[in-house]
Design goal:
By secondary structure, the protein is mostly helical. The protein contains four helices and no strands. Helix 1 crosses helix 2 and helix 1 crosses helix 4.
Length: 88
């Protein structure tokens, strides 16, 4: 799971062009939005597309759980891991 979290952090940085941020700057349990990393709704859309390309997971616009999935690196990793297990 640590490798997955590292890949998610790298995807966040590259897809959102966060040039001044390193993976070590992103704390797994801290919020990605608001007071945490400071991402916004446009960032969420861009990140969703990047995660789909990298990990093959799809976020449905009708799913009310998306906010929970995007809460932190921990929650994104759990979501992606669960989707991988469903596929197998």
């Amino acid at each position: 799971m640590d490798e997955l979290k590292q890949q998610i952090k790298e995807t966040i940085i590259t897809s959102l062009q966060l040039e001044d941020v390193t993976p070590e700057d992103i704390v797994d349990s801290e919020p990605l939005f608001g007071e945490g990393l400071g991402l916004d709704s446009i960032d969420a859309l861009e990140l969703g597309v990047a995660l789909k390309k990298k990990f093959g997971v799809k976020f449905s616009s009708e799913n009310s759980e998306n906010r929970n999935y995007f809460a932190s690196v921990d929650s994104l990793a759990a979501f992606i891991q669960a989707k991988r297990e469903e596929a197998n």
